[in-house]
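note to self: the first set is below, dont mix up w the second
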Amino acid sequence: MPYEGNFLGAFLFAFLVVAPTEECAKCLCIRVAYRSPHFNEVMDGIVYGVAAAIGFATVENFFYVFEGGVSTGIARAFLSVPGHAMTGAILGYYMGMKKMNPESKKRFIEVGLAIAILFHGAYDFVLLTQTLLCLLIIPIMICLYFFYRKKVYLALKGSPFRAGRDEDLFRKP
């Protein structure tokens, strides 16, 4: 279905179909690792989230490249793969927060899933419109990067296994 000029269709498809489906699939993959005794810090959630996302992106890109050719694969390598990895990391961060704080009433997993869906949906929406809105992909990816970077920083800072390493990384200016 072409979405060029059909903003409502692109919006609904991106935010209600594609993004929730793909992010829930990643969540289910992370959930498998969630039960492991080796999942014992928040950073593990990020690692498992990125692994699930890269696996998903690999399978997805196989089909896109088969249909659209090598140029499609190259374009997706610079936007889609990092986008999947970062949303997977964000989702993994929140799943790690829930795992490390099981008594908390906070809805970590739901929040992480909602954030991942919002970034993923925005990414898909601007590309599906096939208009000048596509230029918004740059600020979306920049915002996604900084959000992802902050979650990695917090996970490393709170890691019980860092034992004082990288103190200058966490020193306040």
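second set (the one i keep forgetting abt)
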Amino acid sequence: MQIKTETVDIPVAGKMMRTFVAHPASEGKYLGFLLFFDIFQLSDPMCRTVARLAGYGFVVAAHEIFHRLEPAGTVLNQDDEGRARGAKNQQATPVANFDEDTAAALDFLKSHTMVIEDALGAGGFCIGGHLAFRAAFYPDVKATVCFYPTWLHNGKLGQGDNSQSLERVREIRGEILILFGSLDPLIPEEGRERIDAALKESGVKYHTRLFTADHGFVRDDRVAYDSECADRAFSDAVAFYRRIFTTG
């Protein structure tokens, strides 16, 4: 499916939040998805992912998660300096700010003329997988896919390292799919088990997939990239979204 892309600025907290949006080129109504990315922000690989998902017939929005700290359009390099700067940014951002940005982005999608009413989902990669998990706390979000959600198992997200995301799992009303890499040092086996136990105890409807892959295996400019696992994971995500909104 051919698509169109644009960059929009969403007002939040007295500032503008730079957001990359992709949607089918043909007029119509489609599912809306809020996508979160890693600490490097809206890099070329991540924008390609937005475009790829839109090609399946979705309206996809992805905002700069550090827009309060970085100039609009900032993309951090995948080197030691970029990683350190991204880590510093996430540790300096109160979780409440992440949540406020999520609410603003969801409101944008709800009001988009091409988004079907009551058809919102979320997804994300790395820190974005964790933020997508938190997006599932919003009742409008019916389906959420978390790709290797960093710091979800230990709560070390944002200022204070105490997001308590798993402690709020009972707030989720939609369905969750979590995709892990068995070789991921940031989410070890005990971390995956803790996430699984919290979801199971909560009664939330969820599914997990485990790939023989490292952290960041979906991102095509990383050494960890695994094209086969990435394709399978992406296919699982699209099928999950479509099932929820076809049968829901």
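remember for set 2: The chain has a mean pLDDT of 95.
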